[in-house]
Amino acid sequence: MAFEKLVSAPKAALSFDEPATISLTKRGKAKLPSLHLGLKKELVEKTSLSNNQRVSLLIGTGDDAGVARLIADHEGALKICITGAGGAIIHAGKTDHFGAETRERVGIVGEIIDENTIELTLPAWALQD
Predict the structure, then answer these.
(1) Which tens digits make up the pLDDT trace of 8-63?
(2) In a domain, 15, yes or no
């Protein structure tokens, strides 16, 4: 019996000009999509956020509709995962807040509010009617 070593393709770096990304994905027969956020190294370095740190994701309403804030919060439900390249990934879990359909990853604006807070400008599909 012969065996060949499987060689995986290298992971692609974020190929967006914007400092952050957002997507909704589903696996298998999942009814609800999972929300994923990505942050470039340049954005993460301007904060105090660290690997496995707990954060909360706040979605703007009213005058703040269309933006979200990622805030360091020791009681937060989410965790930051710092990548080998220094960026970050946040798996925000399953949600129907933005609808039940998947959405391709898109670049979004991310701005530092303070060392513990990043404000993200959400894409048009994330705005609720």
Answers:
(1) 766 655 567 899 999 999 988 888 999 999 999 999 999 999 999 999 999 999 99
(2) no
Range of the domain at 85: 20-126
Strand partners, 20: 39, 108
Structural tokens at position 70:
């990622």
DSSP assigned state of 47: S
32: which DSSP letter? S
State the total domains in the chain. Answer: 1
Distances (CA, A) of 25 to 15, 94, 102: 18, 9, 5
pTM of the model: 0.84
Q: How far apart are CA 68 and CA 59, in angstroms?
A: 4
